[in-house]
Description:
Blueprint: H1 8-14, H2 41-47, H3 60-73, E1 77-81, H4 84-95, E2 101-105, H5 110-119, E3 126-130, H6 135-141, E4 146-152, H7 164-173, E5 177-181, H8 186-189, E6 199-203, E7 217-221, H9 223-236, H10 242-253, H11 255-274, E8 279-283, H12 293-299, E9 306-311, H13 315-324, E10 329-330, E11 340-342, H14 354-360, E12 366-370, H15 376-387, H16 393-398
Parallel strand pairs: 2-3, 2-4, 4-5, 5-6, 10-11
Antiparallel strand pairs: 1-7, 6-7, 8-9, 9-12, 11-12
Helix pairs in contact: 1-3, 3-10, 4-9, 11-15, 13-15
This protein binds pyridoxal-5'-phosphate.
Pyridoxal-5'-phosphate is lined by residues 83-85, 109, 111, 156, 181, 183, 203, 205, 215, 217, 333, 348.
Amino acid sequence: MKRQTNHSETKAVRGAADLDKKNGPLATPIYQTSTFEVTDNDEQLRATRTDHFYTRYGNPTNTVAEKTIAELEGTEAALTFASGMGAITTTVMALVKSGGHVVAQRDIYGGVNKFLSQWLPKMGIETTFVDTIEYEQHARAIRPNTKLLYLESPTNPTLRIVNFKKVAALAKQHGLISMIDATFGTPINQHPAEFGIDLVMHSGTKYLGGHTDLICGAVAGRRALIERIWETRTTLGNCMDPHASWMLVRGLKTLAVRVARQNENALQVAEFLAEHAKVRSVNYPFLKSHPQYALAREQMAGGGGMVSFEVEGTGDDARRVSEAMRLFTLAPSLGGVESLVSIPVLTSHAMIPAEERARMGVTEQLIRLSVGIENADDLVADLEHALEVVVAPQQLSVK
Ligand SMILES: Cc1ncc(COP(=O)(O)O)c(C=O)c1O
C-alpha cells in the first residue's frame, strides 16, 4: 500500500497534479485523440503499454483520473471504465475463468445481481449469493473453485454495512480476491483497501463525478491485479473517453466538500424521518438505531448521502410521496449535487425477482433518497410536505 502523505481533501484536489509538469496549464488538458504519433517503430513497440499509444489502451487524461482515484483509495493503481457496470463486468471477467465460482452478498446493485446470476452462467461461472452480514454463510459457500468474494458497502438501497476486516480476512484465508462496490461509501467516508480488501470499485457516475452529467466507473487496487484487469479492458474495449475523464477529474476536485455537506444533510434528513409518524423505518448508517451503527462509526468517517425509508402505507403511498416532492427530483441514479428520489422496486432493483427483493428488504414501500448539497432545512420541509399525502394509520382508525 502507498504511504499516506496528504489527507483526502488534498488528494482530491491535487491527486495527480504533478503528472505532466512539462504541460503548463494548471487544469488537466484533454488529450482528445484516439492515437499518438511515434518517431520510429522501436518507439512504437515501447509505447504499447503506455498512455501514449492508442486511447483504448490508455490516455494521459485518463491517467490523471486514475492516479487521483488510486491516491484517494490509498492503492498502488486504478483503472477507469466507460461505466460502473463496465468496471464490474470487466474485472470479474478478468479474474474468474470458465469453471470458476463467485461468492456474492445478496444486497448488491440490481445490475450486478443480473450479471452474476444471468450472464456469468453462460460463460460457465456460477455464483452463490449469501446473506450480506452473516459471515458464516460466506465461509460455508466457498468451494475449491471459488475465486472471488463480491461485496458492496453501504448496500444499495438498504444501507447495510459490511465488516471490512472480517471479509478481508475470510478472503485471505481461502486465497480469494475480495472486491467491493464502494460507490455509496466514497473514498472520503471509507477506505476498504486499508482493511485488506483487494479491489475497490466505484460507479464514478455517482459521487466521483458528482454532477449527474457523466457515466463512468473505476477499480483501484494492487498494481499486479490492475494490470490483469487492464489486459481485459483493452480487449473488451470499455475505456473512458478523454473528455469524460476530464469531467471526472474536475468533479473529483470538489469530492471532499460535496461529501462533507451530503453527510451533514443526510443525517439531518434521516433524523427527521426517524421521528415521523408516517415513516415505518429509516435506513441510515449514522443513525443510532441502525443495527450496525457501531461498525459504521468504526470504519466510516461519515454516514454518506444516501437514506432510504419505508412509508407507513402501501406501495401506492410510496409512489405518491415520491411524486409529491418538489426539491427531491424523481429520477434514478445518485451522488450528484442535487437531491434525487426513486423507488428501488421500480428502478435500481426492478430487474430482480420479487421474492429475491423481499429477502433483501427491498419492499414496495421503500423510498430511496440521494441527498444533495442544498440547504438541509429546505430538504426536510420538502419531505414534510410530501409525506402529507400519506393517510397515517391513526387518522384511518379515527374515521
Ligand atoms: C451501487 C452501484 N453500483 C454500480 C452501479 C452501476 O454503475 P453505472 O450506472 O455507472 O454503470 C450503480 C448504478 O446505479 C450503483 O448504484
